[in-house]
Amino acid sequence: MSSLENGFGQQSAGAPDLEVPIEDRYQLFVDAVQDYAIFMLSPSGHIASWNKGAQRAKGYTREEIIGRHFSVFYTPEDIAAGKPERELVIATVQGRVEDEGWRVRCDGSRFWADVVITAVHDASGTLVGFSKVTRDITERRRLAELENASRVSAQMLAAREDEQKRIARELHDDLGQQITALKMSVALLEAKLGASGIAQQFLPDTGAFQSQIDSMALSVRRIASDLRPPVLDDLGLIAALEWLAEGFQQRCGVRVAVRVAVGDLSFSALAATAIFRMVQEALTNVARHAQASEVLIDMRHTGSACTVRIEDNGAGMVLGGPRKPKSFGLLGIEERVRQLNGSVSIESAPGQGFKIAIELPVSKIVTGATD
After folding, report:
1. Fewer CB within 10 Å: N-end or C-end of the chain?
2. pLDDT tens digits, residue range 324-350?
3. What is the CATH number of the domain that holds 63?
4. Domain count of the chain?
């Protein structure tokens, strides 16, 4: 076993005391690095050295790449724009240049890279080349994009919820008052007709007007409640779920049982809205697709988690197949669960009903929890 066994001068017992030159140790270190592509360029940008990390990141062997111009790693768009040459000029003038962007592997695939090019000078100050360090940060960029998309989605959901609340309030306060005024006007007209002695002739018409106005008022209240039920803001999540279940049962003729065991858990406004909307979406799916006769809504607090289950005894479905293009219910549920750092699982099979199980961390849904 030689004294160069680990590249840093460690020796086996009894071996001669030989010191490995620092240049050799540095080269051994660079060659051993696999998470970074580290290599040297000539002053003209041709590749002069190559480490294992470079081969791993870019796919070229040492024999394939040594002597080629480093622009081979750039996209056609960047090459056409003169980016490789421009980066060498900047590194020469400023000493180094750092960049993030797409780079191209040997097989033509692209990866997002963090790149640092540093000018290297000899003892007299003459430029002898450049060192180039490249790190593949594709996954980090993808995570950042997902986080940004999640933030944008959360903002869109919040904006939509605020807009629905505003429209519901205007329907209730403005249009609702106008309908009430219209009903009073019709009643006043009946009274005037009665005073003139000709009410009997017009009573069928005024009665029809009254029925139409009552129907309009019911529709406005229903639409406003669907947009943003006042009970959610006034009485809280549990009362809102019971109200939702009762209304669904009346409209669809499907029996709905609500079981709640959350103790003294105090839900934040964000969590209460999210959970209500998730259950609402699930019930909408039941009405559209399930052909069910019974639905169970079960919510309970256990340890550090709160679980919400919505189960039906309907037709079920084959999981894993393509979703319908206009089916956004489950996507909406998944997005709201993601915003609360929770998880969702689905169980179903033809003839076996449909079950959605949502688990949310208590730390994200209680009053005072931060987004």
Report:
1. N
2. 544 556 888 888 898 899 999 999 989
3. 3.30.450.20
4. 3
